[in-house]
Design brief:
Helix content: 25-40%
Number of domains: 2
Distance between the termini: 33 Å
Bound molecules: adenosine-5'-diphosphate, magnesium ion
Order of helices and strands: HEEEEEHEHHHEEEHHHHHEEHEE
Number of strands: 13
Structural class: alpha+beta
CATH architecture of the largest domain: 2-Layer Sandwich
């Protein structure tokens, strides 16, 4: 994607803006290892930040204007901090940057304008959260140029607010949190109720392989809302605030009082929360067989109880489980298409990718995009000049 890399970004900035950038920020995309459809049930998730990111090269402007270029899209957009409007059409991507500024200003922060060049290698619209990467990068860029003293969690919360309130997508906080708070070599256990979080090591010698089914998630919005409503009904019938507060034993005891469909939806969520916590323990202890089994159980539960998988995702997981070096595989993201996540023994990763691509292509006629990733640090700002004064 794109002709440049982050290493060329300052040079590209100079060409575009005929000035030196004073700041570079990087915010990674992510994949969720386990804990699917648990976030809106106040449960646990275990994402990791991947070595694909959105980068912004920027310099401050004293006139309160923001001039943006997406190097990927070859598109410009400009707005004034004094009155931030929604962009439409080809400039709609700039709403993520506009929203970031809007959310910070709504909190009472004083921002300064900027010239900014955006470039990313997170595939767009594949479910690896290029949107959260752009939001976190934008929030961090504004924060760094205005010398705001925001914690990574503050950055994540403003970025989420921007996506919900300005872009208008009702997302949870997982994507922004992992992009802001990731740690190299680690996944991040997030409690979506308290927002408490702690790093969990990915054992040495394990590669994280993401396979994009190339099936686009058509049904996802309506089905997502339907699942949320079903979970709310389950919680209501069980007399709890959220399914987070239900144990497997308590759910079993109430089985007769729940419609069969609601029971299965609840069993996924309650079981998935337990699987996340078991996976954390297994990762810490290096028990890879157990980690793999939990990923597979998660997939089966999403397929059979929660019914958010699809043929392509099932084929991809089954093909992965037949390859040498596989530890575990499952669908990741909301479902109905998008990606699978695979843990693979590193020394086998090359052959795994080839074998998986061929097997999936033979069964579906689709050529998947497959990314061998590792867990990286969350968002960073790099000061390029010690005299980056607004001009
Ligand atoms: P996902 O988050 O799964 O990648 P979304 O549809 O949520 O998909 O977000 C993708 C949108 O994010 C793009 O349509 C675009 O508006 C914006 N975006 C992501 N990366 C870039 C980029 N490098 N330059 C400009 N906009 C980007
Ligand atoms: Mg997104």
């Amino acid at each position: 994607m794109g002709e440049i890399t982050q290493h060329d970004l300052p040079a590209a900035f100079r060409r575009r803006f005929e000035a030196e950038p004073s700041l570079m920020v990087r915010a990674p995309g992510r994949v969720n290892l386990i804990g699917e459809h648990t976030d809106y049930n106040q449960g646990f998730v275990l994402p990791l930040a991947i070595n694909r990111a959105v980068w912004i090269a920027a310099r401050a402007r004293a006139d309160g204007q923001v001039a943006l270029i997406s190097e990927n899209f070859g598109n410009r957009s400009a707005f004034s901090l004094a009155s931030i409007q929604q962009a439409t059409g080809a400039e709609a991507w700039s709403n993520y940057v506009r929203g970031a500024a809007h959310a910070l200003q709504a909190q009472g922060h004083r921002l300064c304008g900027m010239d900014a060049l955006v470039w990313g290698d997170v595939p767009v619209g594949s479910g690896l959260s290029s949107s959260a990467a752009l939001l976190v990068a934008s929030t961090l860029a504004f924060s760094a140029l205005a010398e705001l003293d925001l914690s990574p969690l503050d950055i994540a919360l403003r970025a989420q607010q921007a996506e919900v309130e300005f872009v208008g997508v009702n997302v949870g906080v997982m994507d922004q949190m992992i992009s802001a708070l990731g740690q190299a070599g680690h996944a991040l256990l997030i409690d979506c109720h308290s927002l408490a979080h702690r790093p969990v090591p990915v054992p040495n010698g394990v590669a994280v392989v993401i396979a994009d089914s190339m099936k686009r998630r058509g049904l996802v919005d309506s089905k997502y809302n339907e699942r949320r409503a079903e979970c709310e009904e389950g919680a209501r019938r069980l007399g709890v605030q959220s399914l987070r507060d239900v144990t497997i034993a308590a759910l079993e005891a109430k089985r007769a009082s729940l419609p069969e469909l609601i029971w299965r939806r609840c069993r996924h969520v309650v079981g998935e929360n337990a699987r996340v916590l078991a996976c954390v323990e297994a990762l810490r202890a290096g028990r890879l067989d157990e980690v793999g089994a939990l990923l597979v159980q998660s997939h089966e539960s999403l397929r059979d109880d929660y019914e958010v998988s699809c043929r392509e995702l099932d084929v991809m997981v089954e093909a992965a489980l037949r390859q040498e070096g596989i530890i575990g595989a499952r669908m990741t993201g909301a479902g109905f298409g998008g990606c699978t996540v695979n843990l693979v023994r590193e020394e086998r990763a090359g052959r795994f990718v080839d074998g998986l691509r061929e097997a999936y292509r033979a069964q579906t006629g689709l050529t998947p995009s497959i990314y061998v990733c590792r867990a990286t640090d969350g968002a960073q700002a790099i000061n390029l000049s010690l005299s980056g004064q607004p001009t």
